[in-house]
Every structure is written in structure tokens, then in C-alpha cells.
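This section describes the prediction task in plain terms. A model, or a person checking by hand, is given the sequence of a single protein chain and must write out its three-dimensional structure as a string of C-alpha cells. No templates, partner chains or ligands are provided. The sample shown here is typical of the held-out split.
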Amino acid sequence: MSIKILELFGGIGAPRKALVNLGIEHKSIDYVEIQENRVRAYNALYDHLHKPQNIIGWNLKPNILVHGSPCQDNSRAQYSSVMDKSKKKRGASVGSGTRSSLMHETVKIVRNMGEWRPEVIIWENVTGVLDKRTSGAFKEYLLALENMGYKNSYEVLDARDYGIPQARERVFCISTLDQQFNFGTLKRKPMQHIDHFLEPDVTDLKYVISIPSMLNKIEELNPVRATDSYKRRLGVIKDYCWTITERQDRCPNAGIIRVDDKPTYRYLTEREVWRLMGFNDQDFDEMLKQFPTKAGKRNATLYALAGNSIVVNVLEAIFESLLNEKLIAA
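The expected answer:
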């Protein structure tokens, strides 16, 4: 039996990549993503001809529905950066008009399926959804699924527990129609050292940090004194990096690499961040064909595509557990 999967807010297709890596027979009955560059990336990786489309009013019947609605409105960084009182209301709510409120469109899609239901619904988002100021919408989402017969389980998972040297914590909510999902069944893996993911001898000057304002933020060059107020700093990567986001040339970022003892520092390369999201070099090379890098410039598109994805290795552990616990038929 082939598992039918539906990807909403599908990005570059991390769920598909996880199923491919596990050798699980599956069929993507559809992929829904409104961002054109993400659709191009997905089509290139999985040989499809999808077009950008919105999830509103959409309907099909998968075994597994995976969605990772836009997270900016639940982001702690986004919230803390807003100083205007009129903009401090954050978090998704039904009819709120925020990007994160699109999570409720998934609920509508499932409800519109009638008596038929996907066996499993997987939702991923930033840990900010659990904060007091934003958790109301998450509770609404859980209650809506419970009212449709689902049993919900959620937990914060860190990519470092699944072999990837990236301190990336995300909330995963798994809703099932049968027995409740037990996160304790996930198979953890020892974290690999960051050195296994870095390119050797990166000398291209476009990756070297030379802007004075950025150099001044490097922690080991200008450590924060106890009397200082909080200031954002650039941390030097040792065993693992921090959360990969859309951009590496801002502060804070996923961390920087000390090149030598001069000292010289550089940003992570585009290939490195793709590796740190669980994609292989063949995937990255395909992306380079779709989004060529301009001479002397870093490729902002490739950074953004990776930073908006889900770590493939975490999804592999989830799918394996779902199959082993017979929460989905295969």
C-alpha cells in the first residue's frame, strides 16, 4: 500500500524527502504552496509541475496531512522587535488576518472532507506558539481537531537529538484518529559534529565578515560585560550551530566560523545550511541549477529556502514511529 500525503504550506518538500530517505512507498496527492520560488524548488527536487496555489478552499483525501503554517506571527524575535503598542498583538486566531492564522484553514479543509478523515495530521511551528501571549490560537486549533475525533500530542523537538548539529527547537503537534501518539517512541540519534557538514577551505571573500558593524558584534572579539545592557552578538560555532533562518548576514544568526587565528570569520555557505537541514549535495546542486548564484554574491534565495524548511531527520524519526506504532497503514 502506498501512503498518500498532502503537503500544505509545503515549502521545499521536507516531508517528501524524509519518506524518500526511508524508502517508504508514497504518493503526493498534492502540494500547496503560494511562494513561487519554493514551488520551483519543490518541482525540481521531485520532478513535478506544480503551480503556486493558496490552501483556502482546497480539498483532497490523504492518509497524512502535513502543514507548517507561516510562523512569523508566533516568533519571539518578531514579537520582541515590535515596539509600537498597536502591533503587539501576536499569534494566530480565527479570522485574525495574520499569516499564522492560516493554520485554521487546515482545520476547515479537514472539516470539509466530511466523514472521512486523514489518519494523521502533523503540524510544525516555532516554540513561540506555546507562549502565554500566543497560545490561545494553538489551543483553538487543538480543540477544533479534538471535536473532529483527533487525539493530539505535541512536544518541542530539537534537531540535535536527531543527528543534526543545529540547535533548532520546534513544536511538533501530531494528531491521530487511533491511539494517541507517544513522542517517547521517537528514535534519537547522537549529534554529529558540525565539522561533518562544513565545506573544506572556504576562501571566497563573499563569505568573509568584513563589515565593521558585524565585526563589532562578534562575541569573542567584543565580549559582553556584566554591566552592559543586552546586546545581540555573533557566536562562533564550535560543536553545533544555532537555528538557521532565512538570512545569515544579520545578527544574531546561526553562528559564524572562525577561519584561522588572525582571526578571520566567515558566514555559513549556502551548501552548508542545506546540509544542516538534512538535504544532500545532490539536492543542493539541483537548486543551484534553478537559482544560479551571481558572481561575488551570496545566494539569498538558497539561504531562505533552507531556513524556511523543516529538518528532514526529525521528520524521518516521526514517520518511522508512526509506521512502527501502526498509526498509519503502509
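For orientation: DSSP finds ten helices and ten strands in the chain.
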